[in-house]
Design a protein that fits this description.
alpha/beta, TIM Barrel, eight-stranded mixed beta sheet
C-alpha cells in the first residue's frame, strides 16, 4: 500500500466526476495520507480557467487528516518544452506534472516526441512527466529516463494506462521502469483518477515495480515525507503546515 497519490482530476476538468471533498472522503477509506489534485492545464479543451489554479490558495492544507497538494497536469505544447503553466500560476502550485496530450500536442515521430519531452525536463518547471509510456507518443525511453535522472524529474507509472486509458502502454511502462532503475532516477505513481473510487489503487503499478525489482527508496509514493523532501530538493518552498508529515 502506498499512502500517496499524485495524479487525479476533479469536476473542474469536466470529463471528471468527483469533488475535492469526495476525494478526501475516499482517501480516509483507502488509507491515502497525502493527495495531489492535478486538474488539466488551461490549454486542454475542457480544462479550468487559470483562476482555478490561482485560487487554490484558499484550500486548507489538511482536511480531515488528509494532506492536500495544489497541483496541475500541464500540457507540453511544443518541441521547445513550453507548458501551459505560467509563472504567476507557479507561485500557487506545489506540484507540476507535465505530459503529452493529443488535443494540445499532435503525436509525431519518436525523435520529435522525445525532444519535446526532454526539453520539458530540462526547463526545470515540471516535477513529474505524466504517462510517458503512452504508445501514441513513442519516445526514446533510455534517453528520456537518463534526462529525467540528470535533472531530478520523476517519470510517472500511471495505473489508469493499464485499465481504460492509453491501452497498449504496458510494455513501454515496463521498459520505462527498467531504464529509470538503470539511470538512478525516481518513479512517481499516479492513479490518474477521474472519479474518487479509483483513488489509491496501484495494482498494475505494483506488479511492474515488483517484476522489475525497482528499489522502493526511489518510489516517491512510499511516504508523504519522501514526496515533500523530493519537491524541496527540486527548489520548491517548504510547506510549513506539512513540516511534520
Amino acid at each position: 500500500m502506498y499512502p500517496v497519490d499524485l495524479h487525479m482530476h476533479t469536476v473542474a476538468s469536466t470529463h471528471a466526476y468527483s469533488t475535492l471533498q469526495e476525494y478526501v472522503a475516499q482517501a480516509k477509506k483507502c488509507g491515502i495520507k497525502l493527495l495531489a489534485i492535478t486538474d488539466h492545464g488551461p490549454d486542454m479543451v475542457d480544462a479550468p480557467h487559470y483562476w482555478h489554479f490561482m485560487n487554490m490558495r484558499i484550500w486548507p492544507r489538511v482536511i480531515d487528516g488528509i494532506a492536500i497538494l495544489r497541483g496541475i497536469e500541464s500540457n507540453i505544447k511544443n518541441i521547445t518544452g513550453e507548458i501551459d503553466c505560467s509563472d504567476i500560476m507557479l507561485d500557487e502550485l506545489d506540484l507540476v506534472i507535465a505530459g503529452l496530450h493529443e488535443p494540445v500536442f499532435k503525436p509525431r515521430n519518436c525523435n520529435y516526441n522525445t525532444e519535446a519531452m526532454i526539453s520539458t525536463i530540462e526547463k526545470g518547471i515540471a516535477d513529474i512527466i505524466s504517462h510517458p509510456g503512452n504508445p501514441k507518443f513513442p519516445i526514446d525511453i533510455c534517453a528520456v529516463a537518463e534526462a529525467a535522472a540528470r535533472y531530478n524529474v520523476a517519470l510517472e507509472l500511471n495505473n489508469s494506462s493499464f485499465n481504460h486509458s492509453r491501452l497498449g502502454s504496458a510494455k513501454n511502462c515496463r521498459n520505462i521502469v527498467k531504464e529509470v532503475r538503470k539511470a538512478g532516477g525516481y518513479i512517481a505513481l499516479g492513479t490518474d483518477s477521474h472519479i474518487a473510487f479509483s483513488l489509491g489503487i496501484f495494482e498494475h503499478c505494483m506488479h511492474i515495480i515488483k517484476e522489475v525489482d525497482f528499489p522502493q527508496d526511489r518510489v516517491l509514493n512510499v511516504s508523504p515525507r519522501r514526496l515533500l523532501d523530493f519537491l524541496v530538493n527540486r527548489g520548491k518552498r517548504v510547506i510549513i503546515e506539512l513540516d511534520d508529515w
